[in-house]
Amino acid sequence: MSEKKVYCGSGKKQNEKWIKASINVDKFKDHIQEFKGHKFLRLNININDEPDQYGKDVSISIDTWQPEGQPQTTETVAEGDDLPF
Questions:
Q1: CB neighbour list of residue 76: distance below 8 Å, 6 or more residues apart
Q2: How is residue 2 annotated by DSSP?
Q3: Structural domain boundaries enclosing 26
Q4: pLDDT band at 82 (very low <50, low <70, confident <90, very high)
Q5: How far is CA 36 from CA 30, 31, 74, in A?
Q6: Which of 16, 27, 4, 11 is closest to 59 using CA atoms?
Q7: Which pTM was predicted?
Q8: Is position 14 within any domain?
Q9: Does the residue 23 lie in any domain?
Q10: 3-class state of residue 1 by DSSP
Q11: Is residue 85 part of a domain?
């Protein structure tokens, strides 16, 4: 099932190793996850084939994917050494 993307920013590719971007903090405050007392935000950063009308060729969206049957939570996971994503 396809989820609606939550766009939170855009940017411009400066060179092969550098992307300059701006992120709207208000868009992601409901998507912050916790793991062992630390807060994380999963992002999808895409380099577009062509710039948009503003010259931006990078789009940033929040990664909202969750395994099927598991609701999106911000609970702290207590076991294991690996990050939950």
A1: 34, 35, 36, 37
A2: P
A3: 6-62
A4: low
A5: 18, 17, 11
A6: 11
A7: 0.68
A8: yes
A9: yes
A10: coil
A11: no
- The total number of structural domains that make up the chain: 1
- For residue 68, name the pLDDT band (cuts at 50, 70, 90): confident
Dihedral of the alpha carbons of 5, 10, 14, 16, in degrees to the nearest 10: -10
Q: Is residue 19 situated within a structural domain?
A: yes
Q: What is the pLDDT of residues 15-62, one digit of tens each?
A: 989 999 999 999 988 899 898 999 999 999 999 999 999 999 999 999
* Token duo for residue 24: 């709207």
Question: Which neighbouring-strand residues pair with 85?
Answer: none
Residue 11 has pLDDT above 80, yes or no: yes
Cβ contact 59:8 at 8 Å? no
- Residues 78, 85: Cα–Cα separation, whole Å: 14
Helices (H) and strands (E) in the chain, counts: 1, 6
pLDDT score of 18: 94
Return the DSSP state at 48.
Answer: -
